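Reposting from the mailing list since nobody answered there.

I have sequence plus structure tokens for a pair of proteins and want to know whether others read the tokens the same way I do. The first protein:
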Amino acid sequence: MGIIRFDPGAGHEDSAHPKWWPLYHRMLEAGKKAMVFASTREELLASRREFGEQCKAFYITTWAKTRAEAEHLLRLMDW
């Protein structure tokens, strides 16, 4: 299974924006994994709602201020 890193470039919505979801659906349907940067908790939750269990096929880059916050984000994603 290949990995696709999509970078929309300067001046466009970031890679976690719903605008790009149809592209991610196509990637997943093709059996690929997608690399996504989610900068907020809300972006993570929105992705989880949209893609459900398919989120496990994402390589998600994000950040947390503390270990507790990072563990909370992992629980939100059900991983």
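The second protein, same order (residues first, tokens after):
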Amino acid sequence: MTALADLSTVVLGPLTGRPLESWQQAPAGKWTPAQIVEHLALAVEMSATTFTARRTKEPMTRRGTTLVEKLGRVFTFGLGRFPPGLKAPDRTTPPPRVDGPAAEAHFRSALAAWAAMERELLPARRRDLFVKHPRLGDLTIEEWARFHVVHARHHARQIRARLRA
């Protein structure tokens, strides 16, 4: 299993014990902690659902990567950072108003779906099942897990910054 199991602590830990209003704190034009948690839930859920839907597909081979995808992989997997200036894909953009407890429940549910998918598909489909990331190209289950860890840590820093404001 992956470090995704630790993400509930990384992401939700700073919000634990805080008043519900804390979930809605954000500078103008920025996502609130509730929206960030919902965004992460949508991303994890979508990749877990896609891998699960592909579980019966024949073994796949990775498509070639573009220069932009290669650079994105260096930032994400090599440096553990996100390339600057990226905008979330529409499918993972949270609505304007998100309830904190609902986002938390969705995030925990998405992590549980990911864990179930991993139990079902690993190690048998470790090297021959891919889901395309919009900026990194075809990724395996374990590469997606690494992406989600880097992604969640990136957004956890934003949550902590919102709570300090």
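Reply #1 (J.P.):
I read it the same way you do. The chain has one domain: 3-164.
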